[in-house]
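hiii so my PI (J.) wants the whole complex modelled not just the main chain, which honestly fair. so below is everything: four entries, each one labled with what it is. i double checked the lines twice but i was tired so who knows lol
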Amino acid sequence: MDASKQTRVCVVGATGFAGVEVVRLVLNHPQLRLAMATDRKAAGTPISQVYPALAGATDLKLSLPEPDAIAAAADIAFLAVPHTASLSLTPDLIARGVSVIDLSADYRLRDPKIYEKWYETPHTSVDLLKDAVYGLPELFRPQLQDLAQKLASGQGPVLVAAPGCYPTSTALAATPAIKAGLVADTLVISDCISGVTGAGRTPSARTHFCHSNESVEAYGVAKHRHTPEIEQTLSIIAGQPVDVVFTPHLAPLNRGLLSTVYLQAKPDVTAQDVQAAYEDFFADEPLVTMLPAGQMPQTGSVAGSARAQVGVALDARRRTTIVASCAIDNLGKGAASQAVQCANAVLGYPETTGLDFVAPVL
Amino acid sequence: MDASKQTRVCVVGATGFAGVEVVRLVLNHPQLRLAMATDRKAAGTPISQVYPALAGATDLKLSLPEPDAIAAAADIAFLAVPHTASLSLTPDLIARGVSVIDLSADYRLRDPKIYEKWYETPHTSVDLLKDAVYGLPELFRPQLQDLAQKLASGQGPVLVAAPGCYPTSTALAATPAIKAGLVADTLVISDCISGVTGAGRTPSARTHFCHSNESVEAYGVAKHRHTPEIEQTLSIIAGQPVDVVFTPHLAPLNRGLLSTVYLQAKPDVTAQDVQAAYEDFFADEPLVTMLPAGQMPQTGSVAGSARAQVGVALDARRRTTIVASCAIDNLGKGAASQAVQCANAVLGYPETTGLDFVAPVL
Amino acid sequence: MDASKQTRVCVVGATGFAGVEVVRLVLNHPQLRLAMATDRKAAGTPISQVYPALAGATDLKLSLPEPDAIAAAADIAFLAVPHTASLSLTPDLIARGVSVIDLSADYRLRDPKIYEKWYETPHTSVDLLKDAVYGLPELFRPQLQDLAQKLASGQGPVLVAAPGCYPTSTALAATPAIKAGLVADTLVISDCISGVTGAGRTPSARTHFCHSNESVEAYGVAKHRHTPEIEQTLSIIAGQPVDVVFTPHLAPLNRGLLSTVYLQAKPDVTAQDVQAAYEDFFADEPLVTMLPAGQMPQTGSVAGSARAQVGVALDARRRTTIVASCAIDNLGKGAASQAVQCANAVLGYPETTGLDFVAPVL
Amino acid sequence: MDASKQTRVCVVGATGFAGVEVVRLVLNHPQLRLAMATDRKAAGTPISQVYPALAGATDLKLSLPEPDAIAAAADIAFLAVPHTASLSLTPDLIARGVSVIDLSADYRLRDPKIYEKWYETPHTSVDLLKDAVYGLPELFRPQLQDLAQKLASGQGPVLVAAPGCYPTSTALAATPAIKAGLVADTLVISDCISGVTGAGRTPSARTHFCHSNESVEAYGVAKHRHTPEIEQTLSIIAGQPVDVVFTPHLAPLNRGLLSTVYLQAKPDVTAQDVQAAYEDFFADEPLVTMLPAGQMPQTGSVAGSARAQVGVALDARRRTTIVASCAIDNLGKGAASQAVQCANAVLGYPETTGLDFVAPVL
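here's the output for the full assembly
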């Protein structure tokens, strides 16, 4: 590999669960070079001390997230930070010519008022919001390609808002049916199960092993912040407002997210129609596997990978209900690998570069 | 305890997961005495050899499930057997004067044609079907009390069909809203997550630790056999046909079942209406805890216990959707403890006898 | 039950993992009545709010651990507190006539200098130390019976130092061999595996689900504070100083502790000798099951119970090494149920009162 | 990559847990090409149907393990088969010019009598046994290099006996101390904890999720077949017979193996001596990380990787005992990645080719 041609990367928030997964993917990536990784609390410490799994892979010490230092070190920054932290940092990075792949929620919602309502904080970067592209390549690839062109032609840095984990899997499960015109009702019920990495690295009563282990529970019912993000995406797809009822659950596993989505179909829709619509939609997608009729995905098959798997069934016994299920790794396609997929897209690399490895199968 | 007044119990299928939980509850029960436990394959072996956890608690050897032997040993039999096995044995036991608490599906569905359609086998005991009571005490207590009277007055043995695990939790989650007239649509979506004991004790690729661990998946989508059972119960409650879409999931825990149920409410229903309806419905139930507004149940809080916990929310942002969640132990309230609760009811003991212990809290 | 004859209990530190297990066992106990439960931070809150599993079982609100209030409410106090906290509280309780079952380390080590060395804090209650009995009934039953007599004859409150979890299982695994004179060397290697409840309820990086899950590790190697406690017990048993090398491991389960202990035996010792020695030693113990030759214990068989299971093998191929394995629930026989067992002993109840229930077998 | 220069690989027993991990590593390997994968029962089925995680990565159909077909398709075969199956197949492959990396036990023990005693079956391939090299590169690299030379110079196919999982981790934990002359006694106690993949893919009562979950247990005490293999390796290292007492445990995780090894050191050995000996020994090893003093390895840090991590402590308080701990992935360094590491060595590729990826850190 000609290191001089690699893109230099900074991972901001590198010790969070999504952040360290970006770090891992960058270390494994042939075209990206981990030039910098930041963490406010652990600055000065080798990241391999925080995560012994990285011993032997990198000696990099964590830094403070100073915009000038980032701009000196990196061409592109992945922001794996809580919401509002990106609002503070992104403008400084963009101003210094650093492209940003933002894994936070700050640039996902097109309408700043909706952001302010759900996140209960002002949106302080409305100008940049207009330039941000929502980084779900399977749905918004042309927009990402526009960014690639912009970047390649020297028209400055670009900003991608990498989607949330639940919005990603819900969108992948629901889009083919909506797009194919199979749906009769604008109500989408998304019932999701996430592994505990989704709850973040900060220790708490909920993330204590003995609380999470051997238990499942719903949380954030009727008020989870991913709701408007799902509605935004599905409404764009549907070309009309879609109403989302969304219930996330926590289950005792590290990685994995399963969305089971319920859509009321037009009465004459058949199981074959549905299967065909999904197969068509995902036919050329390199990182999404559409399972054969009768098969539903399990999260264990995508854990550690950059992939999604989708299965669908039709319950036509009484109501005609489409039940679609999408499995992703919440840290992979739900966060870090999707961010790298977006980076590949805007940097002009093949989208699967560094992502087409086979993850442990169990 | 005056052992001469205890009721003598036989557990048929005592080494299955539900069966051994009945054994455990009977051993802990002040009024029931474990007189016999059967298993075709392990007959002759002490049950504590199959389950070392029972060492020190019982020396009982497993027997063959011979009707005459059961009738000689026991007043009441718990049948923790696969469907059709109960169809074979129950008539023989009833004919010999032994009351039966059947944990299988054989006497749950009122209409033998629906049974035959879903279970793909003839129903060979239609006569007894008419006398069977569906053993969900919180919904059908009067019918169980009729059996108690029948038994007490010497009018012969009684037959209780103990409900399935998913039908129990779905019914507890959905009934209060339906009964209070809050619901606008007869569609009930029940999205459930079960621990692996629900998949039974027979080793298989699916129940292999390394398959189940660190993975969640939907199974039996649009065709699980508990669907008509749920429909039957909710239609009785609603007084009209209810359409059920039911998706079970498997998650990596031993015990626990969470049902999250979606009901479209009448437009003017408020969160307070919903919470009040649920609190009213469960006000006097000794084994169901209705959680305060804003709190949802976790299965870890009921694992090992005989209890259910229920929480409810209203998503009135766009549609008016009731999201109700019920947590049970699939082997407890979803199988064995519910069977014992029914036995208590028909034997004239207080319903919670032997069931009001506090299970491990983690 | 005649409530007027029940013993009134206060559980100090009732929201810790060991504390809430004492609470549970007291709630299930026919002769003990939970009169008070304390927690400094959550005083005023119902304990069922902290642990929803207790909903329906108790309405008790948590209190502050004030000595006068405890003395007014309770005859006996279980102290489920960190070390040094018991040194502060126990003298005040004893002075007020309240008997104490102390689950902390403060009164376990006979020699205050050893305490001060390992716990790096002065022992401020040396007088009481002399009266404390080390509460491992299988080894020190006569001493507990002396306390019972003292209490029954009105000679004031008593103090029991309930053993640590690793010392309990190591002592049960090693004692029969030592006592039977089978051992040739005073070196005892104890290699132990504990569930995560053993690490306590305070959230930390180590107890985060995603750290503990899918990983095992040794910790506290060559310096764990249970080492001198194990040495003290085994030296008493052996009648000479015993040298202990002790390695605890953490494994991803909630409850359970397995000690595998290695002892060099005299060269002519046979497997039959060893098995016989263990069977003899535990022959009349109601809460310890000695497994048949060839069988080793699994922690799953004792989780949630008050029992221990022990198995032993002899590796006589080259060296003559006894490999003995003891399984307990670290919160049960390793903490709370052992404390209740001691309370039973000193209060004059049969030792197994409230402890002879059958726990979930899986 | 020039595919014409890749080495063609056949994986025999490709659906077992070790087999599919070899498949995964070959798919990710730049110099190896998966030409064939066999499974007697599933021949004709795409392997991605057996393991949906492979969907999108390979369309290969499983074949029968016919020697002629393997010889036509592949340059090298990985045999991930039970013992005796390799005795049948290896001679046929070697005769056809196919090099073999054997993951079974059949060619590990130098002395066929020891094999016959422990495996209770005749060794039918004693001739080949003499040519087999025990594939633990960190200990026997020169021997592997001899094979590389033999292969490169056209002197025919080679045979590597890849070590067992417990022997690998025990050897890595014990060797530096023995080699540095720190040890005073030839007794080595190895206490190990393995994830459940170590028990194989065949469903059984023991590998049922509900048995393995929430439980730990010792198994095969004093009779596990890895014992003579450990003794063979450590005796070679020590230059004299070493006596091994070995206890494996099963813990509820998929992947991971931790060996904690106890060695009696010479009395004047210091902790610094020990740490230095280990650091020296592993200084240039690319796939073993020696942790700093005071740190012990956790299996979660190596799961999914090709690496080992080692930590060591000295308990010099009474006896002078070295406590060394080695963490590997039982399917990685304990099986498949070690086999690939050996293949790299004999094929003349850098030893870490295809193995220096960073695995998921949690």
